[in-house]
Fold this sequence. Notes:
mainly alpha
Amino acid sequence: VKFLAFLRKRMNTNPSRGPYHFRAPSRIFWRTVRGMLPHKTKRGQAALERLKVFDGIPPPYDKRKRMVVPAALKIIRLKPTRK
């Protein structure tokens, strides 16, 4: 419901001028992080330029063996009523 309200926000006269609603997970995450930074200052812009966001697993790590951390599993971490 909240995401649909976000998608409805657009410019009435010319929607191609924005706001842009990116669908890719990497761009959604990038926009979320941008909201946490002072992106209108030089310091915030520099921090945003240093941010690397990927869709999927980036090349140096895609060949490595994946591991499961048992303590981080959703079943163990959530409250019993949330299962």
